[in-house]
Amino acid sequence: MSSEAPSVVAPAPGALGSRSDVALAADGVQISFGDFVAVRDIDLTVRSGEFVCLLGPSGCGKSTLISAVAGFEATTAGTLQVNGHTVSGPGPDTGMVFQSSEALFDWLTIRQNIEYGPRMRGAGRAERRRISDRFLDLVGLGHAASKFPAQLSGGMRQRAQIARVLANEPQLILMDEPFGALDAQTRQVMQRELDRIWRDSGATVVFVTHDIDEAIILGDRIHVMTAGPAARIKSSYDVDLPRPRDESDPQAIALHRRLRADIGEEVHKALRGQGLITEEDR
Amino acid sequence: MSALQERPVARTGAGDPPVRPGRQRRAPSGAAIAGSASRAGVFLLSVLTGLVVWELVARHFGPSLVASPRETWDGAVQLVRDGMIWEAIGASTYRIMVGWALGLAVGAPLGLLMGRVRLIRMFFEPYIEFFRFIPPIAFVTLAVIWFGLGDTSKIVLIFYTSVFIVTINTMSGAIATDENKLRAASSLGANRLQVLTSVVLPSTVPYIVTGARLAMGNSFLTIVAAEMVGAEHGLGALIWTSRNFGRIDWTFVAIILLGVLGFTIDRLLRLVTRPLARYKVKF
Q1: pLDDT in tens, A94-105
Q2: A-interface mutation test, from B4, B16, B23, most A Cβ less than 10 A away
């Protein structure tokens, strides 16, 4: 990991905490599909309680990487451990918030969606009710408990997804551009909300995004990825700003500049010929 | 701190654009009532026109070829009086319902498993692909030889008719299960069986219902053919008997009854599947 940081952001130490303290440990991870190498040489350590952002241009393999962490894809080299156990498939230790709200179960109410994980592990009715009440309240969906996903807006559906994952109390929560399909205003509200929810719940989060501001608002640490194929981590930053954060804070602006410079080249590589540069208009 | 963070609306979710459930939109307006009245009017006109055309056709060709509405009515009254009609309806309905229910009971689970378990799909696919092109009517004579003139041969044929349609529909639904949902379920701790029953099955319900309704339609085709070839009772047998007695009016009665019965059963099916609306069943 290379890092050059302005004074406000210290380079990531890269040091491992005690073993039980490490929620995610990736060591030399490579993921290939046939001859196609999606990501390579990924070294990543996430400590319990941390909020880590993977920032990179679209198609850089960051989603592939967290799919592997979730156990949906197999690694082709290196080791991948969640809470000290090698990842061998999807399971309740690792929760995932998907970009698509299709991931919610349409035939279940919001409450039933949130109770799904506890129900699968055999929790009784009273316990499930207690859990769903708590997390409905945490994400601000108490009034929508008996509604179906199709009756909610995009932002509310993503709240429901977050609550459903939190209710299962995974040791690691993965978020794959969860606000990518939302309009700009709702996305801003949801970023603030997630920041609050994360601080209230003490969860460990790996958050994938291509939005620099989103990464600055949410991340304790930001890893910038190179454009694919064969993407790797280009640089890493610790973000030591008080929460809730303000992207107009001078320090945040300085960090934004650094990140933009860092990934600018990668973004151009990825978006070349598409004319879709959205992060460059400031 | 920006003003955004302090807004309490974000906390309650009220900051998100409101979405109204579709159900609340329906209030009986004057236009809606007028609409349903005119729909009933058009229906009545449609039926009357049909009867008039039927009457004209009957007059043109004469009673030896076409029974008129009046003759058909008289024939129906006669069949009702001697009880034959109830016997026929009862026999056909019973055979259809039992065979169809068995087809559904076997086809739906089989289709689910074929959709989600590769090995099971590979094993059954050749049979499905082979037999789905052999119409049940081809088996009518064999069924009578193997299972006799009674209910069993008809039930077996209806089962054969239903099971492939239900299986293929269910399988395509199970294959189409949204990948996000499957992944969400397994990362929430569901095991393979739980994923099958709590995700694949609910998302496949609309396909199963469609398969069941198609199978019901085809069952009517099969039952008439089966009962004409070898049965003592049933609507198909009634058509055959009428021909032997030269009672063209009875044939008309049986044909109309088939239509009415099919329509009634389909409406009943819709009614029964109404509580499945949350699974996005289309009516």
Answers
A1: 999 999 999 999
A2: B16
